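Box 3.1 A note on notation
Throughout this textbook, protein chains are presented in two layers. The first layer is the amino acid sequence; the second is a token string describing backbone geometry. Keep the layers aligned when reading.
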Amino acid sequence: MKKMNKACSGLIALSLLAGLTVAVAPTVQAQSSQAGSYVNTKSKTVFYKNCSAVRKAGKAPLYKGEPGYRLKLDRDKDGVACE
């Protein structure tokens, strides 16, 4: 098991003493090679390899400001990717 920082382990210990159930979410990248995308749960960033991956994930079209949008996916640079 990986080491936890003191604040996190202290919070878990207090929760256990109070009889609460504790769920710890991982902060690693969840990767889907099939869809060609990944989500970094720690920073909440989304990356799609290409528009095919966006469509496979059911997220097309992507608008500027949405997770996963980037200029490389927006051919005509109008703020809408994978249209």
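Confidence is low (pLDDT under 50) at residues 11-18, 20-29. Helices lie at 6-17, 51-56.
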